[in-house]
């Protein structure tokens, strides 16, 4: 279970999250929706430990483990995976090398045995086929010169191979056309499991047609201001975020 | 003759200072006020990084030749040129001369293997590449952090001669690796690459002077470097295209990363062109490690130090990837990986 309690986060001394409380039980998919500037990306970065995102109060734990005490790589080894809105380009490091390095680093951190090169190659081939990815892309430097859709697919491939237990999807639908959106959503849906939780951060309801959430939360001005079932997303789509925004004095 | 060639370790008057333009970033006199006492003998111990690639060997131990100092290559040959230093506070000079006869193909594997401390080493290499010959010179340098060394190579290319050079160093207290190359006749082809990976307060200065005296010569240069801590990297690349050297194609690039607050890079690219029909270009970039990329890698589980090393390795390997000889390339890759 992901458990966030009264989380306060500042960026460059400016408070962004102001007492965010949220729980995602194991096996559930929760959507966090909100207008621009509500703190959606900050939530993802805070949970994954990005430098510059200073937690000033509150707590966040995953399966009982305090996340805020861990460095980003330790959080990854504990199962946290943040799918970036704009995945970074890693020049000179082939995608396959990158993923294998990450997988083995996580395994080392958990005291597990590393995966051998041939065994890994098999896993990669199967996973890339499932995502209809050209295998040659995996020999190229990670994300360098990839299209928006290719980058997102590469994120899903990494999820499939790293097998995180907590998935945070930050605006996964941005920059995707409808075909790419379907492939990426299918990839995410294939990862749904009873012991895996997902936090889907999105501005638009569109993504939730493809990745069906168990619950929807509205994030506005740094706090969760409303929670409900999937119908809440439709309501937001129809009526907008206005009623959740603090009224100007 | 360059200033480096004229350095005489027994005479402090010959040590350049930063008032000499070509030495302004590497003030030898500052670190070496007096002539060092001459080094004693040294033993030849370990076989050196390129031992497995076989071939002939020229070995200097504290400047003293262990056997021959000159080598004439014909046909396809491999030569290991080893400059060994094992001294404390003393100085020594070594000089080797290499000739590749017409049509020869020489793989010249040079290593500077330093032990001891605070020694001063001066190494000179003369290389003549005859008509249609090819020399590939790969240099691996590892010295103590308090050593001082100056290495100067003078390379002369005849018509159609090909020269490939890759210098890889981890620096020293003050270390200068200088290459003077002349395209003496038409249609010669040179690649001069360099790589420095510096930690602590180490200093490495990769200086090249390429002189196009004849037509239709090509020069391609790629130097990349990374400085950590308070290290300092220097790149000076000068390309001169003399009158009449038409059809010259010369390209020079230097790209460096500063991976710390106190690291320093000094770069001085120079193109001096007296001919009309030439193509010349140079590029120079100095940056820092991409913090966003670092976070992305950590988010996927790669610890910060490993992520940094991976980015640095990827950055530097571009230079090593240009080495044509596969076996030598593998040795250099492994050598560098062990020192990241």
Give the arrangement of secondary structure elements.
The complex is a heterodimer of chains A (249) and B (340).
Chain A: E1 2-11, E2 14-24, E3 29-33, H1 40-48, E4 53-62, E5 65-66, H2 72-77, E6 80-83, H3 95-109, H4 117-130, H5 148-162, E7 166-170, H6 178-189, E8 197-202, E9 215-220, E10 223-228, H7 231-239
Parallel strand pairs in A: 3-8, 3-9, 6-7, 7-8
Antiparallel strand pairs in A: 1-2, 1-4, 4-5, 9-10
Helix pairs in contact in A: 3-5, 5-6
Chain B: H1 3-6, H2 28-31, E1 56-61, E2 64-65, E3 70-73, E4 76-88, E5 91-100, E6 105-117, E7 120-129, E8 134-142, E9 148-157, E10 162-169, E11 174-183, E12 189-198, E13 203-212, E14 218-227, E15 232-241, E16 249-258, E17 264-273, E18 279-288, H3 291-299, H4 304-320, H5 326-337
Parallel strand pairs in B: 1-4, 3-5, 4-6, 5-7, 6-8, 7-9, 8-10, 9-11, 10-12, 11-13, 12-14, 13-15, 14-16, 15-17, 16-18
Antiparallel strand pairs in B: 1-2
Helix pairs in contact in B: 3-4
Your description of this structure?
With 249 residues, chain A is an alpha/beta fold. Chain A has a single domain, classed as 3-Layer(aba) Sandwich (Rossmann fold), CATH 3.40.50. Helices cover 32% and strands 26% of the residues of chain A. Chain A contains 7 helices and 10 strands. Chain A has a 6-stranded mixed beta sheet, sandwiched between helices. Chain A has a 4-stranded antiparallel beta sheet with strand order 2-1-4-5. Chain A is globular, with a radius of gyration of 18 Å. The model of chain A has no long low-confidence stretch (mean pLDDT 93). With 340 residues, chain B is mostly beta strands. Chain B has one domain. Chain B is 14% helix and 49% strand. Chain B is built from 5 helices and 18 strands. Chain B has helices at 3-6, 28-31, 291-299, 304-320, 326-337, and strands at 56-61, 64-65, 70-73, 76-88, 91-100, 105-117, 120-129, 134-142, 148-157, 162-169, 174-183, 189-198, 203-212, 218-227, 232-241, 249-258, 264-273, 279-288. In chain B, the strands form 2 sheets. A 10-stranded mixed beta sheet of chain B has the order 2-1-4-6-8-10-12-14-16-18, covered by helices on one side. Chain B has an 8-stranded parallel beta sheet with strand order 3-5-7-9-11-13-15-17, with no helix packed on it. In chain B, helix 3 (291-299) crosses helix 4 (304-320). The interface between A and B is medium-sized, with 31 and 23 residues.
